[in-house]
């Protein structure tokens, strides 16, 4: 009788499964209708369609031929922090709010090349010799080979040597600067402000670090970086075109305007699935998805904010890593002058970087570092000057209005190009505020003093309960788009090495039929693969088979209890 009751219970459960999956639910776009209930879950749900999320989706799709996956993106477009805005400054002109440069010999470079988006411009080189130092009392530009230019370079190199000598993992960059000024009280005021300004440009505006807790040992090798970029994305339509090209093969698996609110990976969930709650920002309705595995690619800033809930809470070591790691902030004030209507005779075409040396400490790090985007060969027609700001100053200026920001930036530009030069107001502008962005809460992570960031990166990358996998630049060494991409692929490797996609249903508690999707074989000789599931030939005197069109669902085919043959209503459907 007990065996009969178990068989009847199984039949009842299967009937519920068939009924639930026959409902015309949305699922994940047109790619798959799975994920609408616990008994027909997605294989993988990816949270976030930045480079890490898209890399994960691409590997699921192209390498492992996983059909039933979904990517949920909170914004109305893919790309994450590689975000292009078209027509903001000029019709048909792309503007990069986040990523702008394409580094040499990376996967991102290859994607641009495959998409035919590589410009013919020569590489751009960031170095001291390509930087222009500007000081208003000296009349603006200080030529590198002038007596003053050579003197200021020597003063900065002396500070570099000092920083390398005293920088340690437990000492902040703010302490290094303070110690140097204390040890050399006779330092000329112009040299002092030049040092602060250059440090601001090379570190503050590059890494978004907060000087009050930035690891000086990590940063001392970046005080005057010498590096090259292959090209800028803007001349060929920006990062958005590369992203669209890359995501095209699996675009129907992506849903935008879906902000994930909670990831419930409780062990008590039916069928051991993960339940994901998301807000549809276009309808303001909450949706629920069910999946075997999750790849979480949200930024460190979002994890710090608690905007994404985990049930149960993440392990203490991961929570500790999230709390300890630094999340930086970098913003741009992008100014555009239309050469048809504005005087651009003052334009510094031969300078890639411009650094204003101020006369006061108070504003030495407030919008004093500029990049001349027109300097890139592919961008010669567009007179665009971008002011950069990072760290605590970036946070402060996010509270200011656009008008206040542009006024301050223009004041600094006019200090670099004093009378009789007349710098006109820009034709248009665009200002970023990444810390205030609810879907990033900053730009990327940085190394904090006294914190083992390398160890925390590894902890951040660790899966939780073999169900929730993590990717994103904060889970990898480095802070760039290529690093984010690599992390997405690594997360998929972690999934395939786990058993999460091998475990199908546990209707029979003592029998867990599995089919390795990588090796395409079952764990025991009594089982055999059918699609991505395993069927066990005999159990309790009953013949069972896996419904090939609905992997993981067992139906009673025939048995000693007079069960009649049953045809799955999903046999001719592609799920």
From TrEMBL:
Keyword Transferase appears in the UniProt entry: no
Pfam families xrefs: Amino_oxidase (PF01593)
Signal peptide residues on this chain, from the entry's feature table: 1-25
Domain Amine oxidase: 52-496
Domain of life: Eukaryota
GO molecular function, one term: oxidoreductase activity
Keywords for the protein's UniProt record, in alphabetical order: Signal
Protein name: Flavin containing amine oxidoreductase
């Amino acid at each position: 009788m007990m065996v009969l009751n178990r068989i009847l219970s199984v039949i009842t459960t299967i009937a519920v499964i068939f009924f639930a999956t026959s409902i015309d639910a949305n699922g994940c776009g047109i790619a798959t209708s799975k994920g609408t209930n616990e008994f027909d879950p997605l294989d993988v749900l990816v949270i976030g369609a930045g480079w890490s999320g898209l890399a994960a989706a691409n590997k699921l799709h192209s390498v492992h031929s996983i059909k039933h996956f979904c990517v949920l993106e909170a914004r109305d477009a893919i790309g994450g922090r590689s975000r292009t805005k078209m027509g903001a400054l000029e019709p048909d002109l792309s503007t990069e709010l986040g990523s702008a440069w394409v580094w040499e010999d990376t996967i991102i470079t290859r994607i641009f090349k495959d998409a035919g988006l590589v410009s013919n411009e020569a590489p751009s080189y960031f170095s001291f010799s390509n930087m222009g130092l500007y000081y208003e009392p000296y009349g603006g530009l200080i030529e590198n080979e002038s007596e003053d230019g050579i003197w200021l370079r020597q003063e900065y190199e002396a500070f570099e040597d000092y920083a390398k000598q005293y920088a340690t993992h437990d000492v902040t960059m703010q302490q290094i600067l303070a110690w140097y000024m204390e040890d050399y009280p006779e330092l000329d005021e112009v040299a002092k402000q030049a040092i602060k300004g250059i440090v601001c440009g090379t570190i503050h505006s590059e890494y978004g670090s907060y000087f009050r807790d930035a690891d000086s040992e990590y940063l001392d090798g970046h005080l005057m970086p010498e590096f090259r970029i292959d090209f800028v994305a803007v001349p060929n339509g920006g990062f958005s075109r590369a992203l669209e090209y890359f995501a095209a093969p699996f675009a129907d698996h992506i849903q935008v305007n879906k902000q994930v609110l909670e990831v419930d990976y409780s062990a008590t969930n039916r069928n051991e699935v993960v339940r994901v709650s998301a807000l549809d920002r276009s309808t303001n309705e909450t949706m629920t998805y069910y999946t075997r595995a999750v790849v979480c690619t949200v930024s460190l800033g979002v994890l710090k904010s608690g905007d994404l809930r985990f049930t149960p809470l993440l392990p203490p070591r991961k929570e500790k890593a999230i709390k300890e790691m630094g999340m930086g902030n970098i913003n741009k004030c992008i100014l555009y002058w239309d050469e048809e209507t504005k005087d651009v005779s003052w334009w510094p075409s031969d300078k890639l970087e411009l650094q204003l040396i101020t006369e006061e400490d108070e504003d030495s790090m407030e919008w004093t570092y500029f990049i001349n985007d027109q300097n890139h060969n592919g961008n010669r027609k567009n007179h665009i000057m971008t002011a950069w700001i990072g760290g605590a100053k970036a946070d402060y200026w996010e509270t200011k209005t656009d008008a206040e920001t542009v006024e301050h930036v223009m004041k600094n530009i006019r200090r670099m190009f004093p009378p009789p030069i007349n710098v006109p107001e820009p034709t248009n502008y665009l200002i970023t505020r990444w810390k205030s962005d609810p879907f990033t809460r900053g730009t990327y992570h940085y190394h904090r003093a006294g914190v083992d960031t390398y160890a925390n990166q590894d902890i951040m990358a660790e899966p939780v309960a073999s169900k929730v996998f993590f990717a994103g630049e904060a889970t990898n060494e480095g802070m760039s788009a290529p690093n984010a991409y690599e992390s997405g692929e690594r997360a998929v490797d972690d999934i395939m090495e786990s058993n999460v996609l091998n475990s199908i249903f546990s209707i029979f508690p003592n029998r867990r039929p599995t089919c390795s999707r990588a090796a395409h074989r079952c764990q025991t000789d009594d089982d055999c693969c059918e699609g991505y599931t395993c069927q066990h030939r005999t159990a309790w005197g009953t013949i069972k088979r896996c419904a090939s069109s609905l992997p993981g669902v067992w139906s009673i085919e025939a048995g000693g209890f007079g069960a009649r043959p049953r045809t799955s209503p999903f046999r001719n459907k592609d799920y």
